[in-house]
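Hey, I'm writing a tutorial for new members on how sequence and structure tokens pair up, and I'd like a real worked example in the thread rather than a made-up one. If someone can provide the structure for the chain below, I'll link this post from the tutorial.
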Amino acid sequence: MKEEQPSLKKILQPYLLISIAGLLAFAPVSFMLRSLKNDIIALEYPINHFISQSIHNGEIPYWFNTWGMGFPLQSNLTWGIFSTPQMLFSSLFNYNIYTLHIEFMFFVLLAGWGMFYLLQKHILKDQKLSQLLAICYMLSGFMVGSTQWLLYITAAAFIPLIISSLLSLLKTPSLKNSIQFAIVYTLMFTSVYAAFNIITTYSIAIFILLWFLFFEKEKTKRIAKFKYLGIAVFFTMLLCTPCLYHTIEVLNNISRGNSIASDAEFFNSNYLHPASLSNLLLPLSSVKMSFANTEGTMLHSYMGLFILLLLPFAVWRSVKEKNRRAIYLLITAILFLLTSFGEITPIRNLLNILPGFNFFRNPAIFRLYFIVALIIFIGISFSNKSIEELFFRKSFETKTIIRLAWLLLTICLIIVFFNGKNLEKISFNNLSDFVRNINYKSSLLISSIVQACLLITAIFLIKLKRLDLLRITFALDLILNTLICTPFFSVSSSSISEVNAILRPSKGFPLQAINPNEVASTFIDNKNNTWYNTNIFRKEVSTQDSYRGPLTLKNFYSDTFKIKAKRETSLVFIENDSTNNSVQLLVQRPTIIKASVNTKSSSTITVLQNYYSGWKAFYNKSQVEIINDDRPGMSIQIPKGEGVVEFKYERKAVWINALALHLIVIFFLFWKAINCIRRYAIKSPSLS
């Protein structure tokens, strides 16, 4: 008998519930109550705003003229025009701080949707179990701890989709699945922090090898699977090669293109300290944990009480039943966890023998893969089980889970007992002061009280066999703990409108009348908070220090830049100027700078932008040679008299390749959407 096709409503319902959980957990962000903070405001927001302004004003956004005296947007190092999601958000919206919050929430929810899709399609039969595990992933400590890095959140969003598309390809090799894998991989490759690409690519290669060594039973189908894997690799390389090529080009022109492993302290900074694993039970405690050379954002690994209650029995069950798939995944999770410890274990340094691993730090990012592997491990361990069987039957499983719940409750109550004296120090009258002044013992106490209440509720509901309320309790655990942590990791004390008033983003590309040496790139507000890269919102080139990180060109920013600009009032000026010469700026756009000049003798004209391949100079519409002698800015020699100088940046290959990639991805997404509509929404009339 043919299985009945589920309705669209039934299919979408779990995704809707996952969305509600995510929106509530990040309520200060999703309801626009408070602004995101730190790097996502200092880096992602100004960059995305700039790209959007370029697009909406007829510019190809591949030269970032206000970042470090100019930087090419053609790589996947941190930002660039090859990311289809980034370009869609920048094109469809006139990007502002509200758009940033919407984009952030989209990728948070996509992480939950992707994990649910993976678990339901390939691992679990019970939809309710898949849904809870997806919420555990979406609201894990990695997500809330990484709020300030949008490219970490996008990595968490794409990894489940990558795994799902790879499993579809291995289980059902076809041209469609080969192309699907290539598209999904390309989306990840162009949209995440580069370190995640390196880790994910090696993980995929090792997984495929293990699949064929231990899990591929139908040896007669190996040739077909190798064939379609080869096709997938071909299309992946075809789509990723332009971005990879231009990324390597950028790496050759920045100091960050060199290995950083030689600086041991910096390379091993931001690791996951083993003692911080206590926040697997007490998540709020991570906000004030203090270990040398790392920070709280890298220590948060919470996955929910649901995971803690299932994990011990999942391990016991997998070992007892000799479930090789589950055991391998558990070993994988442990290896990723040990790697995230940085130099505390030798694994992270051993990985440097593989190309790419010695170019990035932050070992704690490996904990994302630990979380992914652990959740999939639990899914595989209970692939044929339902929540009812685990929690409500008088079986060994249920008894074990209840006993573990009592044990965790006892631990929480003991912590409350020994830290109860800190209760009088806790005051919620002023949230800003509370967040600023909370200490470790207070965070430990609050977390213990919250977890104890949740555990008591869970035990009570298990006894009453109230499944729906139990599921809500497990989801509420993650929602509540994420919500509690957002003031520390995610949002500032300022509202979105206040931040918008501080940054004052302007539209278009006006002429710059202020000396670049006098353009402030940072702003200190009345709360003594420093806001970085503020000149980007005004589209003003500045020689002042800002929060640029390592992604600046090698010939960028020196004292000479300041000296050159010191006495000038224009972005374009005549070196060794006299009062008889004049320069008037006519056009100042990211890729075009034009000025009229009047000189009494042969002179050198300089524009304060970094030189990079693609820049050309013209005098009275005739191309002239740019003096390239490692001097700051770009200079040309012109004869005496009146004329117009023009500097143009053009890289046709970059934007044509990017445009082609976006069209392919968008066509694929439309094709998938149409197929879904045909499959679930359009019901053919039955034959009489």
